[in-house]
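Working notes for the structural subgroup meeting. M.R. asked for a predicted model of this chain before we commit to crystallization trials. I am recording the input and output together here so anyone reviewing the notebook later can reproduce the run.

Input as submitted:
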Amino acid sequence: MFADTREHPCELRNVSASGAAIVSPQRGEIGERIIIYADQIGRIEGIITRHSDDGFAITITASPRKREKLANTLTWLNRRNVQNLRDGRRAPRQVPRKTEARAILPDGREIDCKIIDMSKTGAALAVTARPPIGSRVRLGKLGGRVVRHFSDGIAIEFMRIMSEGEIERVLKEEHFFDQPDENGSQLA
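Returned structure, recorded in token form:
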């Protein structure tokens, strides 16, 4: 997400705790602040430092604690890939095209959130509220319970595991995905 809140898909390359190369058709301006929501890594904030033929490079802006956490995550991902380890997740994650959503907290408050990723078993949400682990939360029509907190949000486990067809239908109904309907018009 660029400073003007435009969002575009991208691919991270050569990631370290201090910087990354980004492959993207959109480049932004040198010196511009950006936020990247990366699969398996989470939220990364940075400043564009240079352009390349296929994108741009960033310097990551993070506290020493967050840099250490990022370095640990990158080390774990590298080790997992080298050793073919599983990440412990029960279902593959996907990132919806439309990440803005509404969550209903245990006290009934409705808050805006961003879906970092989701699967048929749960979702990771970027949100400032921190309901206690074990508390019930709704993501649109999907009921779940908080299973962990992380630096930028919470992870929820849905109350029941859905089939692939069912999660796609729910996502479409909730308009998390901007997909054309049978008439070719966009849902959202």
